Automatic annotation (TrEMBL):
Residues 9-122 form the Gamma-glutamylcyclotransferase AIG2-like domain. InterPro entries: AIG2-like_dom, GGACT, GGCT-like, GGCT-like_sf. The lineage of its organism: Bacteria, Pseudomonadati, Planctomycetota, Planctomycetia, Planctomycetales. This is Gamma-glutamylcyclotransferase family protein. The active site is at E80. Transmembrane segments: none annotated. GO terms for cellular component: cytosol. GO terms for molecular function: gamma-glutamylaminecyclotransferase activity. Gene3D superfamilies: Gamma-glutamyl cyclotransferase-like. CDD domains: GGCT_like (cd06661). Belongs to the gamma-glutamylcyclotransferase family. It comes from Gimesia aquarii. Signal peptide: none annotated.
């Protein structure tokens, strides 16, 4: 039996279940709700959030943990504009019980200087 490679992805905004981009995860496996370690800040970019590393002032961000196949990761990279440098995909630190796994998330690459901090949970369903 050929086991396809899968990547654990933490989503925190429009990709969450019930939100406007959730269809891009419809063929993937939802695992659980999850929270990051308190090393991140989420900004309100208008219709979507942007997550950045912020170790000194960060908070725990609430989201979902998904198991995503290779074609799903490629699709998410397109949706998140990785090639255009809108977002980058890199590892993220979660708290227990998901803290023993290697998980990736999409980080905002834009200027956050004039953006409002969003808090720990994205709730806009645009």
């Amino acid at each position: 039996m050929n086991q396809e490679s899968r990547t654990l992805i933490f989503v925190y905004g429009t990709l969450k279940r019930g939100f406007c981009r959730s269809q891009f995860l419809e063929n993937q496996i939802f695992l659980t709700k999850a929270t990051t370690a308190p090393h991140y800040t989420m900004y309100d970019c208008g219709e979507y959030p942007g997550l950045v590393v912020d170790v000194p002032e960060g908070i725990g961000i609430q989201g979902e943990l998904w198991s995503v196949d290779e074609s799903g990761v490629q699709l998410l990279d397109e949706v998140e504009g990785v090639a255009e440098n809108w977002f980058s995909r890199d590892t993220i630190e979660l708290i227990s019980p998901s803290d023993d796994q290697i998980v990736q998330a999409y980080y905002f690459q834009g200027d956050v200087t004039h953006l409002k901090k969003n808090g720990s949970n994205w709730t806009k369903q645009s």
